[in-house]
């Protein structure tokens, strides 16, 4: 007797084939739920926008920023200013170029009035081909009392020199345009005259575990979203607390 006839005779139903589609949809559903959970965690932990009322603050156990580190950076402003802003930046970093107008506005509105001292740390990242040469160019311009004009020129024209096959020649042209001795600047860059101090600046970043640019501190408060709105708000809060 065949199997079908035997089952019919014994009153047993023929077993139905189970489909694998149910398990497939369970897997897809699990993936969707996991993705939603990841998105929720990302949204909850997202730092506030620079215009948010949730401003960053100093941690309860945070140590003051070691002022001795500033000797390897470039400073502008009153040494006794009540607030100190420190920036770690890479001249070839696009985000740093976007932050540069805020730095310039800071100098105009707070540094010039004696309320803030600005300290600039070089942090040329290894993935940027000409970042170290640009840092050298700015330091060499400082030898001719033109660090900040060259600093601004490098960020304003980042797209030009960063794609050049001869960025040092471009830096020399900027020196000419700024009224500097371009041959002196070129020799300074070519011989890497300021290589050691730039390396020391990078060392400070490593000690503080600063790995991205721009990283900005207002006193010892690290900004979550470096930009003019958040930076100004934290500065104003710091100034008000000192009155």
Automatic annotation (TrEMBL):
Gene3D superfamilies: Glutaredoxin. InterPro entries: Thioredoxin-like_fold, Thioredoxin-like_sf, Thioredoxin_domain. Residues 49-194 form the Thioredoxin domain. Keywords: Membrane, Transmembrane, Transmembrane helix. Residues 1-21 are annotated as: Disordered. The lineage of its organism: Bacteria, Pseudomonadati, Pseudomonadota, Gammaproteobacteria, Pseudomonadales. This is DsbA family protein. It holds the Pfam family Thioredoxin_4. Belongs to the thioredoxin family. DsbA subfamily. PROSITE patterns: THIOREDOXIN_2. The chain crosses the membrane at residues 25-44. The keyword Transmembrane helix applies.
């Amino acid at each position: 007797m065949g199997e079908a006839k035997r089952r019919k005779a014994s009153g047993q139903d023929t077993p139905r084939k189970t489909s694998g589609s149910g398990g497939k949809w369970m897997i897809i559903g699990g993936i969707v739920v996991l993705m939603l959970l990841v998105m929720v965690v990302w949204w909850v932990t997202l730092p506030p926008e620079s215009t948010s009322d949730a401003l960053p603050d100093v941690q309860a156990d945070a140590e003051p920023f070691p002022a001795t580190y500033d000797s390897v950076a470039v400073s502008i402003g009153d040494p006794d200013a009540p607030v100190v802003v420190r920036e770690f930046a890479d001249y070839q970093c696009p985000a740093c170029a976007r932050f540069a107008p805020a730095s310039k506005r800071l100098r105009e509105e707070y540094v010039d009035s004696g309320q803030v001292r600005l300290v600039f740390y070089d942090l040329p990242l290894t993935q940027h081909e000409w970042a170290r040469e640009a840092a050298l160019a700015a330091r060499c311009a400082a030898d001719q009392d033109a660090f900040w004009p060259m600093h601004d020129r490098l960020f304003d024209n980042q797209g030009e020199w960063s794609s050049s096959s001869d960025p040092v020649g471009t830096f020399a042209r900027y020196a000419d345009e700024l009224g500097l001795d371009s041959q002196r600047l070129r020799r300074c860059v070519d011989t890497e005259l300021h290589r050691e101090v730039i390396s020391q600046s990078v060392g400070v970043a490593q000690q503080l575990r600063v790995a991205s640019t721009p990283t900005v501190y207002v006193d010892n408060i690290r900004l979550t979203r470096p930009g003019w709105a958040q930076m100004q708000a934290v500065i104003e809060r710091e100034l008000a607390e000192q009155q």
